[in-house]
Amino acid sequence: MRYYPVFLKLEGRLCVVVGGGEVAERKVEALLEAGARVRVIAPEVTETLRRWAEEGRVELEVRPYREGDLSGAWLVVAATDDPGVQEAVFREAEERGLFCNVVDKPEICSFIVPSVVRRGRLQLAISTSGASPAAARRIRERLEEEFGPEWEVYLELMARWRREILSRDLPEEERRVLFNRLALAPLPEWIRQGDWHYVRALAEKEGLSFPEDLK
């Protein structure tokens, strides 16, 4: 099966999670991190999900799923081990034209969730197209070693410099050359090793501000 890779903008969108166990909890946490508005529907839920509901972080309906529960949703996750509920949630999602993930059931999903490496602004998504979640996890672990915490600082620095450069009245070609020059510099390595004097020298050479607060 072939998939189209995409990053979804979920800020403020309603996402319905059917299920209340530990797997559902992890799915809800990821959706909240993306800024989604999350509604959880399940007859039983974890203490963490209850606490999030009390804190107003999620909407919680402690009852079994029933047809019509996906009304108004933008994305759906079925995180339950009940095959009948899984099928019913996916069927309703299909009828409503909604993105739906049924955990560990790629054959009845309209999308699958990749294994992800996060370093601030950087997100690396790994998928084996459902062939082997264990292999995806192994690849993620290798990438976590290669792309360490320095990449979070690096991309924050690049974002600041990008805004600074775009604020200048520079010809497009000159901007492009400057962006490429900065991208080719070994900034992640300098940051990882604490060689901030090299970063300062580059900033001065290109007429850019030096990020004292990122050191």
TrEMBL record:
Domain Siroheme synthase central, first and last residues per copy: 119-145
InterPro entries, A to Z: Met8-like (IPR028161), NAD(P)-bd_dom_sf (IPR036291), SirC_C (IPR042518), Sirohaem_synthase_central (IPR028281), Sirohaem_synthase_N (IPR006367)
Catalyses which reaction(s): precorrin-2 + NAD(+) = sirohydrochlorin + NADH + 2 H(+)
A single BP term in Gene Ontology: siroheme biosynthetic process
EC nos: 1.3.1.76
GO molecular function, a single term: ferrochelatase activity
Pathway stated in the Swiss-Prot or TrEMBL entry: Porphyrin-containing compound metabolism; siroheme biosynthesis; sirohydrochlorin from precorrin-2: step 1/1
Pfam families (alphabetical): NAD_binding_7, Sirohm_synth_M
Record keywords, A-Z: NAD, Oxidoreductase, Porphyrin biosynthesis
SUPFAM superfamilies in UniProt: NAD(P)-binding Rossmann-fold domains (SSF51735), Siroheme synthase middle domains-like (SSF75615)
Domain of life: Bacteria
Protein name, UniProt field: precorrin-2 dehydrogenase
Record organism: Thermosulfurimonas marina
